[in-house]
Structure formats: structure tokens, C-alpha cells
Amino acid sequence: MLILVPVFVGLGFWQLDRAGQKRQLASTQETRRNAPVLELDGRVLDSDDVEHRMLEVSGIFIPEKSVFIENRKYRGKAGFHVITPMKIGTSDRYLPVNRGWVRTPPKEEQSALVRVTGRAVVPQPPAIQLGGGFAPDSSQRRWPFFTLENYAAWSGLAVYPFMVLQSPDDAHGFVRNWASKPVDETMHIGYALQWFAFALIVAVIWFRISLVKQSRKEAPE
What sections of 81-185 are H helices per DSSP? Predict the structure, then answer.
């Protein structure tokens, strides 16, 4: 009891803390999505400052450095997300832009100057990676998932610490229907209640066992 109850109570408060983090994240996302569009002009920006914000940027796509993310679904059909770096003015940094979904990887020539709007995100690898992760070779352009670290190593480009999901309202690009998964804190609150319940159950069982032992000691021979 002295071990389990503190452990279960501690896990309960940890889940409440996680719920608080999710609340803060949801508030940050809502604030940034409603903020004015930020013009990206080549200056250095940190992902913590711009993630979830709408950005606007002018530059030139570099299609020979595009990669195609496999097994992306749209209306039940499998295809690819096309991620192309954009060179911004005279800056030596490149902005990866997820331009949307296609059935087959396109063949493109280098484009003229374009203007793109979209939401800044930091792509994450899948929670479970088989085979020790994914490290693309120099000729591999079809990837199972996208991370900025893999892309910087593969392309040799200096990339921003975030990418942009191109807006569906832009005139150029491919099919874009970005699902925004809501941040839900209720799961963590439910887990916290479970851990507190386990602590209570252990305490009740210990108390009942103690009463039984005490009554046996007090019973006449």
C-alpha cells in the first residue's frame, strides 16, 4: 500500500499535468490560427514562434529536390504528398512546402516566381518505426514519411525548422484538404481518474485487510 498508492497518485497528477499541457497547446493553436498572416521574407525564424501560424511567402520552387510521401489517402484512393523546397529571394535558406496530394508523382520543370500561403507545421515521424527508422539514399525520392532532419541530410539544403502546408485557396498546386485534428485533453483527465481510482481501491483493500487482522487478534481463544 505504501508503494502503490503514492505511485498511482503520482501517475494521476502526471496525467492532469498532461491535460494542462494539451489545454495550453489548444489555446496557442487557436491564437496563432487567428493571428494576421505573417510574411516570410528569408529572415531566420524559430519553429516555436511560427508553428500553426499562417505564412505568406514568395519564391521559386526547386522541383528536382521534391520528395513524394507514399500511401497518402484522398477519398479512399492512395497517392502521394508532393513536398518541394522553395528558394526565397536571395536567402540561402529553403522552405519545404507540402503542395498537396496527387495520384502519381508529377514531372515538373523549374517554375517561375510564385506566391504561396499556408500553415506552418513541424512534421513528426510515426510513433512506431520498423527496421530501425528511415534514412533515404541520394537517389530515393519516394519516402514513407517526412522529417526535416532526413530532408536536410538528403537534399544538402539549409531548410527552415518548419514546413508549410499550402493553402487550399492557392491557385496552383495539387489536391489539398488538410485535416486539423483537435487537441483533446479529456483522454488525460480520464486516465487521471483511473489512477486515482486505483489508489483508492488499494487503500480500501488495505484498510479492510487491516480490520480483519485486528478483529482476529481481538477475538477470544
Answer: 148-155
**Which secondary-structure segment (H or E) carries 71?**
strand 67-74
Q: Which residues contact 76 (CB under 8 A, 6 or more apart)?
A: none
Residues 68 and 141 in one domain: yes
Query: What is the largest distance, in Å, between two alpha-carbon atoms of the chain?
Result: 99
Q: Are residues 87 and 137 in the same domain?
A: yes
State the residue for C-alpha cell 519516402: 143
- List pLDDT tens digits, range 104-152: 988 877 778 889 999 999 998 876 554 456 667 777 899 999 999 999 9
3-state helix, strand, coil in the chain (%, to 5): 35, 25, 40
Boundaries of domain holding 162: 35-166
Claim to verify: residue 132 and residue 218 sit in the same structural domain: no
Q: In this structure, is residue 129 part of a structural domain?
A: yes
- Cell digits of residue 40: 516570410
The total number of structural domains in the chain stands at 2
pTM of the predicted model, to two decimals? Answer: 0.70
